[in-house]
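Hello Y.,

Per our agreement to keep a running log of every chain we model this quarter, I'm adding this entry. I've kept the format consistent with earlier entries: sequence first, then predicted structure.
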Amino acid sequence: MRVLVVEDEEPLGEVFRDVLAEMGHDATVVRSAEAALGSLERQRPDAIILDINLPGMSGLDFLQLRPVREAALPIVAVSGVATESQARECLRLGALDFVGKPVPLDRLNEVLTFLEPQALTRRRTESARHERRRGPRAQIGFPVRIVEYKGTAWDGICEELSATGMKVRSRAALTEGAAVKLLFTPPDGAAPVEVISLVIRVDPDGTAFSFVHLANAEAKRLSELVQRLQRP
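Predicted structure for the entry above:
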């Protein structure tokens, strides 16, 4: 199986990688929830092992993101310091299991063995990945700040806006699937927006982003703005 391990402690991440390889699984290790989002965009894993105590976005926040919930992947939450209420919250948010650290390897193997037939079935029956629908878009320029999860930031100019994403011209050194935070104030003078986004395409004339966790009210406001801008 393909297993995505989200673990900020590098030595422990390497242990997970080695142990999973011995169990016959292909492990990808990332060190933040933001990086996990980017990895999900590039390749769909069969299961996720998620430390809920992470720098930046927490594991609990990660479980609530729309792309994570829509993917419906089995997630094993792990932690060495979580309270009982946090463990219950993980399960309420959709985690398949919660395991305390140090993680008992026999239990981990038992869970993954249980999941393997489901993963194979999912792969056989899953059709080609859906193509993102292009919603209404407007050509418009306004400042945008791009911030990586490590803190590196760039300033850019939005050149194309929709309710689900934007295209930004900047000097940012980004790759497809990377997760960043976009900060901008819509040109209608409304409140500033801060939204986690994924890089879906890098073109010579700009980088295309898809919004990951935009509030419904903000999405509606952007949609109305785009429709107004498209009117002759």
